[in-house]
């Protein structure tokens, strides 16, 4: 007997029929003798419906003064879907009880709309599990020290599930979603992309942060911190698929560097479309210029991705970074009108259509020449590299957006990912 | 400066536009210097939508084993509408905060789907009021001693509002609804029906229990127990109506017997359609026959209204009672097949189409001849009285359903209610 946490996304909970399928699947696991905790998202569309009502009432509802009430509002979506799932489980003949985050309680900090989980009490849940009940816990939400409801932000239910699994020291946390696992790259770009049976936690972290939408990055961080074995698998297989088969499907995110991982130098190709690049040229190279440039950018609530500072020449340096395309104009004007004059920079230039492509692999730690293989593959295809950024297990390049698909495909081939595992 | 509780029903909260109107009205009261607490119902249709989803998942969701989860589900409707109202208030420039029942907390017993409020803590709410905030509290729900969400049953938001007003010792509890007050009788039956400016708590209690749908009876009981001045008024007046005028509109439910009440012997005519009558004839008159007849009826979950036992003759008595028409066949069969044979009764007869008409008036206490005026008025119209039941401030008669309108109109005239106040 194991203690298993299942997480189901909004699509899997999207209709009574789908909720019934989730209940049948969970019932199958419970009947196999496992202690089951289920963390569902709100029914698909529900969170948007609620927030849509709010913005009809307050067109400026994005202001922080509304955040507390927006959390109070949005949290009802998961409470309703959790109660519905418990009802569906009971209808399947399985004893079940649902809890909102505050009832567990899932304690968070006080950052409304993007709270972080601080601790989860396991006493209440364990009592129900020991009494043979399936416990359904609302994803996405918790309670802050003052007793107000908080939410974890979009995709927070993944994090809820992993945090619950950590608190209960669950044997595995299964994230049921609309894809059947983690792929070497996006199959829509590279049809030869392969599903990975396993991926290391660190690789997953890089892939999640690099735009792979399979898992919310905070959930992966949480899994890493508490060593929660986590599996991504499809919620669209028939619910009555053989349990042994189901429990080996999808992609397992592991913490041990097994043999397979030693062999594959690069596990996947991640990419981000829709970025823009801005360079501040000829900045006097004095201490604090990074802060001088990025401080005002952060104050304007513009998120920055890759940051590169070249070595200085004649006491001057060039400073480049990437932002989302949606923030490009605003960032460019801010830098041209305010920041560059204040710092005495010579020029601000930009490119609104760039993309970032990264190779990710835990094997890069112990293999030399990985980056040069990457650069050679790209140069053979005539793809010009505009920026390079590296970390221990990934190498990212910034290229013109129009070369994105070509770059991803050529790298996928160059690192041998087209072959089956 | 007064402390005022407003309660708004589902229709008043039915759309963003209507919620905005509620916010504007509440803002007007707050700007006039009052401390404001608002108790909204769920947006109209929402509770039915949620429970509809539940019954799709569990066709037998009416079973008690589902009640805990149904409460968890249904409670989200008021949490969402409360958050939306707080958002709308903030958009009007009024500081506001919403609390779910468990946050106040509103403590109830553990009877899921029909819980009773046991106590309400006022510390948290008072702190917000003193800080100048409007406090929005979810109607219809609370938390039981085990920390589970409970609901008070349909119409429970009235009770929530009065209970909150009692806990805060509010100056007045205003129930905004889709009628503009309490009438001498249903204006659809008697066009000459008049709105009462005041009605005593005891009269209101009788009228509520006699089918007047204006207020939930438990809310009136609560108001009586804690002497909460309560006013029923229309939510369809323009929100910017003069506050002095608004605060005198509708019907005030009072606890003092003022001059006006001494004059009006009868305040209103209440009635219930859709009842049925069953008589068990020739029952041996031994102790315990009432229990012998009504026990099995209650066990079959059939609600009984008027109960009459005639004096016994030759050691035998006749026993009559009324039930809802929907329960008539079931009750009749139960009595014929099981109860009558067991008790040795001679016959069970029934009439599936009767109605109950009642005159209600606190003045009846000190006036003689009220009942005979009633009987005379009915006999002049040729209405045959089948049963009579009296209490200190009301007299009810059971008549053939087809005479209902005629009876109500003739009584309305006979007791001088057609004249303006």
Number of domains of chain A: 2
Radius of gyration of chain A: 23 Å
Q: Which class of secondary structure composition applies to the elements of chain A? A: alpha/beta
Oligomer: homodimer
| Gross morphology of chain A | globular
Second CATH tier, the architecture of the largest domain in chain A: 3-Layer(aba) Sandwich
Largest interface by Cβ-Cβ < 8 Å: A-B, 42 and 42 residues
Strand content bin of chain A: 25-35%
Distance between the termini of chain A: 31 Å
Question: How many strands, what sense, and barrel or not for the largest sheet of chain A?
Answer: 8 strands, mixed
Spans of at least 5 consecutive residues with low confidence of chain A? none
CATH 4th-level superfamily of the largest domain in chain A: Acetylglutamate kinase-like
**Average pLDDT taken over every residue of chain A:** 90
What CATH calls the topology of the largest domain in chain A is: Carbamate kinase
Helix content of chain A: 25-40%
Q: What's the arrangement of strands in the largest beta sheet of chain A? A: 3-6-2-1-9-11-12-10
Count the DSSP helices of chain A. Answer: 13
> In CATH's first tier, which class of the largest domain in chain A applies?
Alpha Beta
Number of strands of chain A: 18
Task: Write structural notes for this entry.
The structure is a homodimer of 421-residue chains. Chain A has 421 residues and is α/β, with parallel strands linked by helices. Chain A has two domains: 3-256, Carbamate kinase (3-Layer(aba) Sandwich); 268-414, VC0802-like (2-Layer Sandwich). The first copy, chain A, has 13 helices and 18 strands. In chain A, strands 3-6-2-1-9-11-12-10 form an eight-stranded mixed β-sheet, with helices on both faces. In chain A, helix 1 links the parallel strand 1 (3-8) and strand 2. In chain A, helix 2 (46-57) packs antiparallel against helix 3 (67-91), helix 5 (156-167) packs parallel to helix 7 and helix 6 (201-209) packs antiparallel against helix 7 (217-226). The longest helix of chain A has 25 residues, at 67-91. Chain A starts with a strand and ends in a 7-residue tail after the last helix. Chains A and B meet through helix 1, helix 2, helix 3 and strand 3 of A and helix 1, helix 2, helix 3 and strand 3 of B. Chains A, B: Its EC number is 2.7.2.4. Chains A, B: It catalyses: L-aspartate + ATP = 4-phospho-L-aspartate + ADP. Chains A, B: It is an enzyme of class 2 (transferase). Chains A, B: GO terms for molecular function: aspartate kinase activity. Chains A, B: Residues 278-353, 359-421 form the ACT domain.
